[in-house]
Write a structure and sequence with these properties.
The protein has 435 residues and is α/β, with parallel strands linked by helices. It has two domains: 7-104 and 202-422, Adenylosuccinate Synthetase, Chain A, domain 1; 107-199, Adenylosuccinate Synthetase, subunit A, domain 2 (Orthogonal Bundle), CATH 1.10.300.10. Helices cover 30% and strands 20% of the residues. The chain has a ten-stranded mixed sheet, sandwiched between helices. Strands 12, 13, 15, 16 and 17 form a five-stranded mixed sheet that branches. The protein has a two-stranded antiparallel sheet with strand order 3-4. Helix 3 packs parallel to helix 5 and helix 5 packs across helix 6. The structure holds guanosine-5'-diphosphate (GDP), 6-O-phosphoryl inosine monophosphate and magnesium ion. 6-O-phosphoryl inosine monophosphate is lined by residues 11, 14-16, 41-44, 127-130, 132, 134-135, 222-224, 227, 238-239, 272-273, 298. Magnesium ion binds at residues 15-16, 42-44, 298.
């Protein structure tokens, strides 16, 4: 059984690192591209010759005809949104339906999940969620009141599967106007589900067979380690395991089915939503990062909070996921800054400096970033395809970044398009990407 070629792509910060670009870039070398957690809170952008595609639930191998697209059991799915996504892809010439397999174990995002998410976000304990019902859907799964895609194949018992969770939400919210009665909800769900019924199947079995046959598998993480429900900045996180553990529970494959892990990080830091972010720059520098980097959410359009590259959180993510190499994205956004910074540790109120990532929300309070400042560069890196073509200051910056994170750079991205990037000598991706 060939596992060596199977590769995981995981976000190392707070999401939106550029996972979509890297998955699309590598996909031609893989037979299967698999999502294993998250839902349409994800927005993965792929840019081809200036044309942009935003993928939310369809794996980012969508643009490659030879890729089979698998939505694993750990994913939560909104079928109405999926229908729109497929339509949009089809209208642009990418028929993916025939290549799509949806796990019977994946959970359905239902209208009352969305209502509950939005109701909570209107209260005092706001997380700044995407409002897509992700949290409540995973809650219902854990509370054993969830509804799986496989349940759609048993329409006669569907209302009974949905009722317990639906009733609990009504109990809490009263009868919100935007929520249909259960009977109508079931009817509408069955209608929305009809075109998808032939796509529902045994994704775990398919992947196991693929692994046995040695067909290469690319695993596409959504969100990122600092948003992981266990290893992120709890409670300001999403509701799934976006780090490596989620890959195994979300596919049903064992760890020995995985070869390598590529961790994706921006050359600076961003975050959408509330929660700790010691690197955040609330000044003109942060504003410039946001404007130059177009740091507005792919899913919700919200402005992203921006700051210098945060070494400790990225090192934590590398340890959590056993990252073999880094893909550093959006280096070009730093072009033209007089000075660039890397957060190397956090200073507490008593003057101590630590590289430890706190485990409790309260312990983040009062932490100030310890910043190593380096000279910026004026010659553009945008579109660079060889490291040798980068200005020496940019190379020096990347060297410090590698040292701080204690992980080598395996790919460097210098623009949104497929072609814009460099493959360092010695990268484990050699052979997968053109030099
Ligand atoms: P994902 O959620 O991790 O897939 O990332 P998103 O797609 O939400 O956000 C990344 C954004 O950065 C997208 O708009 C990409 O097109 C863009 N992008 C990716 N790599 C680069 C790069 O190297 N340079 C620039 N300027 N933009 C990039
Ligand atoms: P991709 O895959 C960035 C954030 C939300 C919020 C928190 C919880 O594109 O990197 P949720 O709706 O999941 O309950 O929201 O997580 N969040 C993301 N931030 N990129 C994402 O996905 C995100 N998915 C969720 O902003 O802070
Ligand atoms: Mg995104």
């Amino acid at each position: 059984m060939g596992a060596a070629g199977n590769l995981a792509i995981l976000g190392l910060q707070w999401g939106d690192e550029g996972k979509g670009k890297v998955v699309d870039l590598l996909a031609p070398r893989f037979r299967h591209v698999v999502r294993f957690q998250g839902g349409n809170n994800a927005g993965h952008t792929v840019v081809v010759k200036g044309e942009s595609f935003a993928l939310h639930q369809v794996p980012s191998g969508a643009l490659h005809e030879g890729c089979l697209l698998v939505v694993g059991g750990g994913v939560v799915l909104n079928l109405e949104v999926l229908a729109l996504e497929l339509e949009r892809l089809e209208s642009r010439g990418f028929a993916v339906r025939e290549r799509l397999l949806l796990s019977e174990k994946a959970h359905l995002i239902l209208p009352h999940h969305i209502a509950l998410d939005r109701w909570r976000e209107g209260g005092r304990n706001r997380i700044g969620t995407t409002g897509r019902g992700i949290g409540p859907c995973y809650e219902m799964k854990a509370a054993r009141m969830g509804v799986r895609l496989g349940d759609l194949l048993h329409p006669e018992t569907l209302a009974d599967r949905i009722r317990p969770g639906f009733d609990e939400v009504l109990h809490l919210l009263g009868s919100p106007e935007d929520l249909p009665p259960l009977e109508r909800l079931v009817q509408e769900l069955l209608q929305a589900a009809t075109p998808f019924l032939p796509l529902i199947g045994d994704a775990q079995g398919r992947l196991f067979e693929a692994w046995k046959r040695g067909e290469p598998i690319l695993f596409e993480g959504a969100q990122a380690t600092l948003l992981d429900i266990d290893h992120g900045t709890y409670p300001f996180v999403t509701s799934s395991n976006c780090s490596l553990g989620g890959l195994f529970t979300g596919t049903g494959l064992p760890p020995k089915a995985l070869g390598r892990v590529l961790g994706i990080a921006k050359a600076y830091t961003t975050r959408v939503g509330a929660g700790p972010m010691p690197s955040e720059l609330l000044d003109a520098t942060g504003e410039r990062l946001r404007e130059v980097g177009h740091e507005y959410g792919t899913t919700t359009g919200r402005p992203r909070r921006c700051g210098w590259f945060d070494g400790p959180i990225t090192a934590h993510a590398c340890r959590t996921n056993g990252v073999d190499g880094l893909a550093i994205m959006k280096l070009d956004v730093l072009d033209g800054f007089g000075e660039v910074g890397i957060v190397t540790g956090y200073r507490d109120g008593e003057g101590g400096v630590s590289r430890r990532v706190p485990g409790c929300a309260q312990d983040w309070e009062g932490l100030r970033p310890e910043i190593r400042r380096l000279p910026g560069w004026s010659a553009p890196t945008r579109g660079a395809r060889r490291l040798a073509d980068l200005p020496p200051e940019a190379r020096a910056y990347l060297q410090v970044l590698e040292e701080v994170v204690e992980t080598p750079i395996a790919y460097l991205s210098t623009g949104p398009d497929r072609e814009e990037g460099c493959l360092p000598g010695g990268s484990f991706l050699q052979g997968l990407l053109p030099a």
